[in-house]
Amino acid sequence: QAAAGGDRAALRACGVHNVCRLLSRRAHGFYARDAGVAHRKNLGLLRKIMCQESTKFKNVWTTHSASPIAYERGRIYMDNYQCCISSIAQQPRILYQKSKCAKSEKIEDALLLECPLGEMLQSPSDYKASLIVLTVQNWLLRLSADSGEVLEKVYLAGSCCKFFRYLSWDTPQEVMIVKSAQNKLPAAARQAGIQQTVLFYLAVFQVLPLSFIGMLEINKKIFGNSVTDVAVSNGILIVMYSMGLVRLYNFKAILEQFMEQPFDLGQEFNWNGQVGVVGKYPFGLPCNIKITDTPPLLFEASSLENAFQIGGYPWHYIITPNKKKHKGVFHICSLKDNALAKNGIQDMKCCSLEPDWIYFHPDMSGRIIHVGPNLIKVLKLKEVKNHADQMEIAEDFTIVANRENCVNNSVTVTASGRVVKKRFTLLDDDPEQETFKIVDYEDELDLLSTVAVTQIGADGRAHLDFHCNEHGSLLKSIPLKESWDVTYSHEVYFDKDLVLHIEQKPNRRFSCYVYQMVCDT
């Protein structure tokens, strides 16, 4: 916002009234006082240094844990968020270490909250990063990200709901959703014929300052008996059904239409015969949004396993036809009229244990990334020639796994001249062949990162590659020192000059490997 303000001032000063000219001039560095210029230059320099041949990534720290390890913006969280370690320092160091918490205080989910730019906030602590956590006893806590101090606490569950379990963003860093586990009656109650109509509860909060918007229930009587899950994203309520159906509703309109009475945190209330304080124990939050009729439907689609994505420009969506035989086949269709784009059926025809996957590129370019065992396709939407109202899917670039040394002949000839025929062929993701496991995007450096793995015997080797996000060319490859077992669960984070690998082994054993950039002089 500060950068935009500087641009507007520069625009008025130089008399430029064309947005394209303004952006072009800014890209060439005309506005030296722009708040974002120095930051963009620094990131450009970091990218060049990082991709130099002499620059290495060194394993500076390794740790193991019996509890899950999480990473958020330069902070490593261990022991159920009781221990926080900064990964930014030359050697990772502990920011805070709390005493072991009781099972009743266990943290179920967490979100990192960062200060918005250009806004005046009520408390000095609001300008620093904080962690919003949800405990097993339905407490919503805001903790200082650097000290673990409790800054705010809200009790969620009154008489309506006992099991809030999930945190997510509706609008990132602005509107937060707290979702309950699915309500299920005990077996004895079901045998007695008691009906459970409320499936989920959703509590909605504005953040910084933390304020309560409302709570609503997802009811079978309104949305149907076969609802399996719900989610909220970018102002859209997404309802998923057991038969693969996905329905979209206007969430903001639902809040406005069915709000019975607004409440503020800390406000005394008398609600349905209960007297208490909003957000305080034992009353929690009132369910003040009652959906009494089915909201207007925005859109619906049927897709295998409820897989449904929206993106691109103009708006398109990706689904898999709702039959098991179509698993791995993706249809890209226009959101406006459901028309299938030209070349809109993407099928890699993989013969593999793990399926390929597809998603809209997170760089907001409208492109699509399709990842298979040995091939990554970056696709783009473009107008069909002489048909401006029709779109087609075209290949922007591809990244291919290095399988030069792989020979997979079904017929071989021995030294004596005997012909031997193999009774099986290798899978596309056979561990002995280099296979893509992770694809990610580093937005600040504009780099596409890939993790490719080859496993020979018990020893697996992985390398992290940086590719130009515009053209796909390989800029740098970083070998990971630790062995990589393809049967374990892995996460790899690439965050500017830091690479972090989290591995989950059997029996809940976790390992964390931290790599930092080292410039070889």
TrEMBL record:
Any one GO BP annotation for this protein: protein ubiquitination
Keyword Transmembrane helix belongs to the record: yes
A GO cellular component entry from the record: Cul4-RING E3 ubiquitin ligase complex
Entry keywords, A to Z: Membrane, Transmembrane, Transmembrane helix
InterPro entries: DCAF17
Transmembrane portions of the chain: 198-218, 230-249
Keyword Cell inner membrane assigned: no
Alphabetical list of Pfam families matching this protein: DCAF17
Protein name: DCA17 factor
Underlying gene: Dcaf17
